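Fold sample X.
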Amino acid sequence: MAPLRPEASATGSRTAILTIVILGQLLVGLVTIAHFGLDAVGSDFACFWAGAKTALRDPHRLYDFEYVTGLQGWPFGPTKIRPFIYPSSSLPLFIPFALAPYWVGYSLWAGLTGALFLWAGRKAGAPWWFILLAPVVFAAFCGQTTLLIGGLVIAGLVYLGPRPLVAGLLFGIAAAVKPQLVILVPVALVAEGRWRTLVAAGCAAGGLAAAPLAAWGLTPWLEWLSALQRFQGMIFNDVVMVRSAITPYAALQLLGLNGAWALLLAPLAPVAVWMVFRRTQDLADRSLAIFAGALLVSPYAMNYEVAL
């Protein structure tokens, strides 16, 4: 039997990838349609919109779950707890949107973070229509930080070679908002000896943390750590939420097992990132290693992070 020609092999690979993409689109599309019936537009944006308002009005109640939920009001209502669970270093980015009425703030947020995600993706070589993929639309519908973090990290990878300080700035901003999704970026930078980028990232994250730290001291950080424990307990005691999570930890919990066993997979993440950044310059491989690795390490990540 004659061996397959390279052209035939490549065609088969493209067909397989296209099939996976289409099935993924259908699956996430169904989830999105279901959320149109279950949640209001921007239901997740409302959490950090209300959290930023709390920081301006009564910062000592920033991690008071009930108080922040009460600020959200219609159309979210008081029946479901919607806390602010981001570190105080994220507030310099959230507060400008909280100064506007909810719908204006949400529209600006979805538009600007979506534009950032599109711009970064195009810089990385993705086709323009990738912004229309179901996971991306779903993240925008929720008003999540997914498009912001994705845009910052992908742009950081694009600029890693030509503008290392700019790359560090972008990584640092992402870390100040959602550190668990960029926890492996330092491993990637050390693998390539990108010390200037690593320092720049630290300075950017530290700069965003400086204003809240100067205003309120260490108390919000200590309260945030306590709130993380309460939030995780709230999530993993809700079967619906566990089903919406996409981490090995959550999968084990859903099966009735101890999610802590997923920590056995955690060492694979930094090893994979190290190997990828040592062996290839491919932006798709690099971004996949960082984001997929973060999902192995973190116990909590929801279905909207599929957009990453």
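Fold sample Y, listed below.
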Amino acid sequence: IPEWNVAPVTSPLEVQYPIACGTAHAQKRAGKKAISIVTGGDAGTAEGDFASSLILASRKGQELPMLITVQNNKWGISTSYEGQHGETFIADRAKGFNIKSRVINGNDPIETFICVKEDMDYIRKTGKPAFIEARVSRLYGHSSASGANPVQDEVDPVKEFEKKLLKNDVIKPKEVSEIWEAFEQEGVQATEVARKEPVPAADSVWDHTYVDNENADWRKF
């Protein structure tokens, strides 16, 4: 979404971390207070791209204005956290590079909002990176490797926040019902639209690969 400065997350896991180092470097050179925010999952942090981003973000005198975040639901598709990591907290790895880091309850929107704001303010003030490891639930399986059924005994953050809002009289039961109904309808409508869309045509394989693709001369190859 160019107007929001939102770049797409890459399909290869965790490649986005060093890419964000590039955007943060460009922002630092421009001398603005802009920052880069990058996110990924816990499993991908075991890859070299993630480790490289910590190095690039934290070099003394060349620190980058980045908010590095990891959503840790303790699973990488069908691999458990314990089967992939030796460290207790991923955030501890950032500390080794003198990066301001913390572990938060990512299921709590209030805590998450406050912590993200504090770290964004810190980055804009210092020009240095910050690291957030958000511990979150995994409500459903990831793919065919782990199934798509609901996972038992996981905290549903939306329903928990709903309870908190109702308890503090921030929202009424009727409003809650209306919100759920509206989103249900939105999901049904989106499904209907997707089912009616045509399958991709062969000549569209290079669409959105090159700038100004319609005038590109790639077809001669």
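Sample Y note: Residues 173-196 form the longest helix (24 residues).
Also: The chain is about 40% helix and 15% strand.
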